[in-house]
Amino acid sequence: MAGRLLFLALIGAGMLTVNPRAVIAGPQGDSAATAAVRAVTPLPRAPTPGEASLEVRVFRSLNRAMVNPVFDVIMPFVTDSRVLRILGAAVWLALTVRGGTRGRWAALFLVLLVAASDQLTSAVLKPLTGRLRPCEVLANVHFWYQGGRWVWTPREVVGGFKTSFGFPSSHAANVTAVTLFLGLVYRKWVPYVGLLFAGLVSLSRVYTGVHWPSDVLAGNAIGAGLAWLAYLAFKRLVAKRLAVGKLFRR
Length: 250
What we know:
There is one protein chain. By secondary structure, the protein is mostly helical. The chain folds into 2 domains: about 1-40, no CATH class; about 55-250, Vanadium-containing Chloroperoxidase, domain 2 (Orthogonal Bundle). The chain contains 11 helices and 2 strands. The chain has helices spanning about 1-10, 20-25, 30-40, 55-65, 70-80, 80-100, 100-130, 135, 170-185, 190-205, 215-250, and strands spanning about 140-145, 150. It has a two-stranded antiparallel sheet. Helix 5 crosses helix 10, helix 6 packs antiparallel against helix 7 and helix 7 (about 100-130) runs antiparallel to helix 9.
């Protein structure tokens, strides 16, 4: 009881700041004392882009104006890193087991391609640019909180939802790199299905409130560039050898 009174007194005196995020994002079932401690967290302030800017207008149209029950189910699924890892592992396994020599070479190139894409975006460019995510600097963002539930960020910008930087989008870069590379290697229907899936994942990053549109476009461009370089290397090192091998087997 004494602790609660002290807590309220400090807030009243202006010595502590209540974080509105705790009201929205706090775990269910917290005790009053735990909720009180969670609420008192220093929050860094980040400058908010002007609502009239093109970046914010496009973000709002994709993140807020498009909100609907169907996307609220689909987008968290396709943006989930665990789901993408499972799908990637299934594709890699299919290439290795069922793809023959060409498939095994493609699987090897995929490992190198994803490693290059992920490290370039996450370990190099994000720390270098230091760009905050929209859920950190904008109010009223439709946000998929901790992979568990939808929330709207408070009307007053408080931040504290994501600890990593956002530019460029690693999700967009990685999925674009994989799908475009496979589309170049196998052609036919693969490019259309793969790029449709890449577009859906890219859209999900904005819809869930964790990336600006330019984060995603930059990730798409990086993934596409790396996929093209990987395909050129694949053609030079692998495709010609496979063609020669078929010639000698005739």
